[in-house]
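Form 7-S
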Amino acid sequence: MTEILVHDAADGTIATAQRVVEHPAWPVLKDAVEEIRPWQSKDGSIDFDAEDAPSPAAVEKTLARVIGAVEELSPLLPHDAAYHRALVADLRRWAADGFRVPDFLDSLLAFQPARNRIDGLQHLVVFAMYTQNGNPDRNLEAVVLTMVWPDWLAELEATRYDNPLFCGIAFEDFTSGYDTHSAVLFPETIAVREAPERFT
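Output:
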């Protein structure tokens, strides 16, 4: 088992944990997200009146797999605990609203990777969003990434190019919307009810 850094936001300690991509819940999450993606319309909603549309019960069952996998993986990432709680709440609200246009504003605001710019720190990210490979649709995506923050970059950011919101990241694994050479994660791409006053 390969280990990677985690940060406990509660007490500030840095420890090692199993890599998310090697945990059995990660392929479960990926498969469930990939099952949902083709059901979604351009705005991220699911049209149950469309031809070959799944039943609401089928979507709810698959979404439960997404939620279960996120909850199983979250303990590996204590620094993202608040985000994962908000994510699960957003996913459940999406189901309760009949899978209309998804709203991930609460979880977007809870995702704060810039607070812990530690080289090698891993994150698990799930949002409905469009990606930079020419897909304009807001599909559900799941991404595992690690922070890239070597000492030279930290010094550069601190002394010459101050940008408190910039994070260097490397993508470890992802659903098909991120099968691209343009691997970035912009908050502007995520489905939300309103644009937050300040993006992270």
